[in-house]
Write a structure and sequence with these properties.
Structural class: alpha+beta
Order of helices and strands: HHHHHHHHEEEEEEHHHHHH
Number of strands: 6
Radius of gyration: 33 Å
Helix content: 55-70%
Largest sheet: 6 strands, antiparallel
Shape: elongated
């Protein structure tokens, strides 16, 4: 029999019966082979089919990359808008802005990747079911676990990528992000000073500038300094400029006056000057080691090794431990989300009306899992005794999904299949 006739016979058999063993019989007869009962595949056969496995895995891989890339760009654009003030108000170069916002990308990817893989798995397998491709595959002898293996391989790759990002990529990139912010604050040319507005540079220091020249020259400057509790100082000057001093940024004023009011006594002293320098070293420190490290930029071992002390309260230690365990348990969600999708789509009976109910059920489960993961993270950040909940939320979907996919069909599934076929 020619290839076209075999394809036609296969299509007719699948449309007519939707019975894997009957489809296998049609395939054998259409190919001209001698048909015997022993040729029929067993329902849970683990015989590999590298061709179809690679076919599904290729769709999952490219789909996940595209969806993750699109979602990451969308999140990056929305989050980077808050940094536009550095360009508008501080005159930050576009290249520096791109560098600053790009350092946040790993933290976006590690969150987006599990959800992107879930939606791609749902889309690909739902299309395979709707096009009857999985019926033919199972009729050829592949078990549910074999059908699910491409998605499990993709999930394993996502878990590995998630661990690399969580343990190494995100801390390093966020550390660079914080250091870049620190450098921008320490750079006198990037200090925020807007024309015609009162600019609060730091706590207790306010600067007003009537006009800012092209070369950075400041015209009509008023400075109100209350950084010292015992006195308040007001400086007015016709001209000014920002520069670098020995201790960091320095504001140089020319042709002005200095008024100092002592708190409590009310004594006022006035000083007229031709040139006056005001250090802005409270805004930053020239030593990067003085910067307090955020939990997200610390290494995982550093977070786990932190113990309660005079400098670290119980709440801070709990937050550090929660951050570390989030890095260890979070990537597992890629495997859990994938198994949830497979569990809903591959188990049960085939429905000609579509898989809308199963897809909606899978999405609802994922929403619940994300809410539980967020709640477990918040509880663990308050008390370390809740840390096991983070692993429980990540591992339970994996265990349940593997059991449902690997387990043989139940009697109720056959009864349900008969009932649907009669309907």
């Amino acid at each position: 029999m020619c290839a076209g006739a075999r394809r036609k016979t296969l299509a007719m058999s699948v449309r007519a019966g939707s019975n894997p063993r009957w489809a296998a019989t049609c395939i054998a007869r259409a190919s001209g082979a001698d048909y015997t009962e022993t040729m029929l595949p067993r329902p849970m056969s683990l015989r590999p089919m590298s061709g179809i496995t690679w076919y599904i895995f290729r769709q999952l891989g490219w789909g996940t990359l595209v969806v993750a890339l699109v979602l990451t760009v969308i999140v990056w654009l929305t989050q980077s808008l808050q940094f536009l003030q550095f360009i508008i108000n501080k005159g930050l170069a576009l290249g520096d802005w791109l560098k600053l916002t790009t350092l946040l990308l790993p933290s976006f990817v590690v969150v987006i990747l599990p959800s992107a893989l879930f939606f791609v798995v749902v889309f690909v397998y739902n299309r395979l079911i709707s096009d009857r491709e999985l019926v033919v595959v199972q009729a050829a002898g592949m078990s549910r676990m074999g059908v699910a293996s491409p998605a499990l391989v993709a999930a394993g790759a996502a878990v590995l990528a998630g661990y690399l990002l969580s343990l190494f990529g995100v801390p390093a990139s966020y550390r660079g992000f914080r250091q870049e912010q620190w450098n921008l604050k320490a750079n006198a040319s990037q200090i925020l000073i807007r024309e015609g507005a009162f600019n609060t540079l730091t706590g207790g220091l306010t600067v007003y500038v009537r006009e800012r020249g092209r070369g950075g020259e400041l015209e009509g400057v008023i400075v109100h300094d209350t950084r010292e509790r015992t006195k308040s100082v007001t400086l007015t000057a016709a001209h000014g400029a920002l520069g670098e001093g020995d201790n960091g940024p320095r504001l140089v004023l020319r042709n002005g006056s200095r008024q100092e009011l002592t708190t409590g006594t009310g004594n006022l002293s006035v000083l007229y000057f031709d040139s006056y320098g005001l250090d802005l070293d409270d805004m930053t420190s020239s030593n990067p080691g003085d910067r307090y490290a955020d939990n997200r930029e610390r290494s995982t071992l550093d977070l786990l090794a932190t113990r309660e002390s005079d400098t670290q309260t119980a709440l801070k230690v709990a937050r550090m431990h929660a951050e570390a365990h989030q890095r260890l348990s979070g990537p597992i969600t890629a495997l859990g989300y994938t198994l949830v999708a497979l569990m809903f789509l591959l188990t049960g009976v085939f429905d000609k009306r579509g898989q809308i109910e199963r897809v909606a059920g899978a999405v609802c489960v994922i929403i619940v899992l994300q809410a539980l993961a967020l709640g477990a993270m918040n509880l663990a950040a308050r008390a370390s005794v809740f840390v096991p909940l983070m692993y429980l939320v990540s591992l339970v979907p994996v265990a349940v999904g593997l059991y449902m996919i690997a387990a043989p069909d139940r009697p109720w599934a056959s009864f349900s299949a008969t009932r649907h076929s009669r309907a």
